[in-house]
User: Which sequence fits this backbone?
């Protein structure tokens, strides 16, 4: 049902299009400059909060007394997004939709719920939640990886590993380096890339990341072709698709 109602058009996304979910709820695609202006760390923390699933935060949920296997993805989303400030989310959803103004409303006769915006009247139910996260995951190359333990021992081990990962993330955050800086620096100095440093700020995030990936494909393909011509590559063992620099590079 979600695929039929809110299909993400890959070509439109590459060309910078956003996605309208309903009246008052529309995702706009940020430019590279939008992300730089907001702050790379704040932007990606906001995106990961919007797309997170319980398996991503086992330890954090455990500290709250919640078993990650006993909470649904949408319920978890409702818990997280109400804490997001407008200063972060406006880059994706505009200045009117303040996520801190959403209220969790239980659905009568079920264990389900929905989010209702106090002033704008926008409703986010589970279907609209899936549309939001699908677009954002496609845009940022995020792959959701739900995990299930199956037994008590595995559950305990996964939780212990989650706490260790959490501690590593805390230490890593103190010495966090920019992810986009080396990508931007490489691309604006890459022969054939048509944007300079100021111009690259005006292009959509998807277009830029696609250019990064496509440049790597072209470079590796050219190296393989040179290897074939010089006899340094065994063409019998080579996947011929690797010689096609226009091949699908996936997400």
Assistant:
């Amino acid at each position: 049902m979600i695929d039929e109602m809110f299909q993400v058009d890959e070509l439109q996304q590459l060309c910078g299009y956003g996605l309208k979910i309903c009246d008052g709820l529309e995702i706009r695609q940020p430019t590279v400059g939008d992300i730089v202006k907001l702050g790379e760390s704040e932007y990606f923390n906001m995106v990961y909060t919007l797309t997170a699933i319980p398996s991503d935060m086992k330890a954090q949920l455990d500290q709250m007394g919640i078993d990650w296997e006993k909470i649904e993805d949408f319920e978890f989303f409702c818990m997280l997004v109400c804490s997001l400030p407008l200063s972060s989310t406006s880059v994706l959803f505009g200045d009117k939709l303040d996520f801190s103004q959403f209220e969790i409303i239980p659905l009568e006769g079920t264990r389900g719920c929905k989010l209702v915006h106090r002033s704008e009247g926008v409703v986010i139910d589970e279907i609209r939640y899936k549309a939001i996260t699908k677009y954002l995951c496609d845009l940022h190359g995020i792959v959701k990886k739900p995990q299930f333990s199956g037994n008590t021992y595995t559950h305990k081990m996964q939780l212990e590993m989650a706490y260790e990962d959490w501690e590593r993330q805390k230490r890593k955050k103190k010495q966090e380096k920019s992810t986009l800086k080396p990508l931007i620096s490489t691309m604006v100095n890459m022969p054939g890339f048509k944007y300079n440093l100021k111009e690259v700020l005006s292009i959509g995030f998807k277009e830029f990341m696609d250019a990064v990936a496509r440049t790597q494909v072209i470079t590796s393909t050219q190296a393989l072709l040179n290897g074939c011509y010089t006899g340094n590559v065994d063409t019998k063992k080579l996947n011929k698709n690797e010689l096609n620099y226009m091949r699908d590079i996936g997400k």
Observations:
- Residues 205-230 form the longest helix (26 residues).
- The beta strands are 19-22, 25-27, 102-106, 113-117, 123-124.
